[in-house]
Q: What sequence folds into this?
């Protein structure tokens, strides 16, 4: 029996290691491709090369990398902060306050998640063009401030929130906004961290809406810059892999530095 358990555990470890290698391989190939020539990437070379500095020189001489990074960082950070503020307050209200119609409203919000964004792009574009929000940071941020997923996420995580704490805070004389900022936010910090990571990654990697609303080179974000590298007759795959590596680094750093809080927030933990 002991040998059977040991063999089963060994098989599990081997299976997990294989899955890990399969998951990590695309990232390794991307990094290796950034150090090789375009011809080497096309032929499938998987070893680290010596062409990294040449790819960097080509990038800095052909594209405005710093401007694209700043545009992505600025718009993603603004959208993350505003989205977390709005959706957390909505989720807090849905769970804490009692109302007969809130469950119906939540069902309508959840149904809206089934509507693909592509079906709303044309109306949004016409609306934003009429109010002169094209090619602006506000035009990028506004459609993503309030999402049904984040509202539902905060509401579900608020189920475990101790209502007695709110009642005690009201007895102590705190108003609703003070309760939200001084009591709810500190206790639900893992949920806020998880929501911030998801929102930032979605905003950072957003391609379809910026392609429509950001109409000048000065407002170009990283996904648009990477897409532009494949628009010519000949694609420099070494340069493309390098740009993808640079684009991936901020989200990878964010996730690994906040990994513990992200897992706590996703599992619904209350600090």
A:
């Amino acid at each position: 029996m002991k040998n059977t358990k040991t063999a089963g555990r060994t098989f599990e470890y081997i299976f997990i290691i294989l899955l890990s290698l399969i998951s990590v391989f695309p990232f390794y190939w991307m990094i290796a491709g950034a150090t090789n020539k375009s011809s080497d990437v096309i032929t499938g070379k998987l070893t680290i090369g010596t062409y990294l500095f040449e790819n960097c020189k080509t990038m800095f001489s052909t594209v405005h990398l710093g401007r694209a990074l700043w545009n992505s960082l600025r718009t993603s950070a603004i959208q993350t902060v505003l989205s977390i503020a709005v959706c957390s307050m909505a989720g807090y209200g849905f769970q804490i306050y009692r109302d007969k119609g809130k469950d119906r409203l939540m069902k309508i919000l959840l149904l809206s998640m089934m509507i693909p964004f592509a079906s709303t792009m044309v109306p949004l574009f016409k609306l934003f063009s009429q109010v002169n929000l094209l090619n602006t940071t506000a035009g990028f941020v506004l459609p993503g401030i309030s999402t049904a997923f984040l509202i539902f996420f905060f509401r579900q995580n608020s189920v475990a929130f101790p209502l007695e704490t709110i009642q005690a805070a009201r007895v102590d004389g705190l108003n609703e906004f003070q309760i939200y900022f001084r009591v709810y936010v500190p206790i639900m910090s893992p949920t806020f961290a998880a929501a911030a990571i998801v929102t930032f990654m979605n905003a950072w990697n957003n391609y379809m809406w910026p392609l429509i609303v950001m109409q000048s080179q000065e407002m170009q974000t990283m996904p648009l810059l990477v897409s532009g590298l494949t628009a010519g007759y000949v694609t420099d795959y070494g340069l493309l892999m390098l740009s993808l590596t640079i684009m991936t680094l901020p989200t990878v750093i964010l996730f690994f530095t906040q990994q513990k809080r992200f897992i706590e927030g996703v599992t619904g933990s209350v600090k």
In short: The longest helix spans residues 2-34. The mean pLDDT is 85. The chain has 15 helices and no strands. The CA atoms of residues 89 and 180 lie 8 Å apart.
